[in-house]
Amino acid sequence: MQGSHRPLRFTNISNTVCKLTGAPGVSYVAGDDGHQVGRAADRIVGHQPVVLIPNATASAGPFLSSAPRKSDCQQVAVRGLRVYPPDSYRSAYLPLPEFTCKPPQSRSYLKVGPILPGPNNSGV
């Protein structure tokens, strides 16, 4: 499957220490209404919490699948990503226009690794 790894960065902009544990929620979104395309990313978990002092950054590495060269692929244009930090119900929208396959509801073409210290973690 074709795709790319791009780090998702989380920066502590508060004046107090915060802790992030696990992997963020990530999904493709499309349309003016921002509806979700396919299932959310499969999360790879099992790492220790990351403690962020003020202004520190941690990151997680999602694998973003582009439309593979398969005859059974129904290509769909997506506008970006909806990202939920671990243990949060508030999401952020990241514009990232591209094409992906519209998977069946039982499958995701996205994977995301755990949040790790540092700004450039891009592997899953």
UniProtKB/TrEMBL annotation:
Pfam families: DUF4232. InterPro entries: DUF4232. Residues 3-114 form the DUF4232 domain. This is DUF4232 domain-containing protein. It comes from Flexivirga oryzae.
